[in-house]
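A common beginner's mistake is to predict each chain separately and then try to dock the pieces by hand. The better habit, illustrated here, is to supply every component at once so that their relative placement is modeled jointly.
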Amino acid sequence: DAKTTQPTSMDCAEGRAANLPCNHSTISGNEYVYWYRQIHSQGPQYIIHGLKNNETNEMASLIITEDRKSSTLILPHATLRDTAVYYCIVRVDYGGATNKLIFGTGTLLAVQP
Amino acid sequence: GAGVSQSPRYKVAKRGQDVALRCDPISGHVSLFWYQQALGQGPEFLTYFQNEAQLDKSGLPSDRFFAERPEGSVSTLKIQRTQQEDSAVYLCASSPQTSRFYEQFFGPGTRLTVL
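With all components supplied together, the output reads:
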């Protein structure tokens, strides 16, 4: 699976959009981009995933560049409860044992009041 | 509905003791994963079960680590002769299908401290 690069930490004001970048310059054509987050003392939580088109759900939007070498997770109106470590993961979707997730160190997003 | 539960939430062991960590996945979930998370790091894969079959144990760090899921539901991760480097949070995750992607649902983890 391709490696990802994320900033170690970011700040965001409450109510503003949080834009979390991820570089995955070695991503292959069949690898998806996934985002999970981990709130303090909890297990990781799935947020969103995509292949090449932009995706949106009730939690966030995922913007993938045309060359797929980078992506941005957008939380449109950050709240204090969004303070967490956000992990960007790229992997193929073959199912079964290959569904294991390979986490990096992620980005600590601190939402400020 | 009930999520993934793990017990105990906290465990303190003296070096050399054996420990057993339990995971109750979401009912009906076929896939079950164990991860280890050291302080300040992301989770690292340990092992994977599809029902009762352990299909991937490539992440287990040594033969002191053993996992089982005998009836395809509850799973236990056992660590024998614990060492200080085993101190970490152990996370369990379950997923409803094996084909294609389904999100993994994580439990809160068990924090193991080895003195």
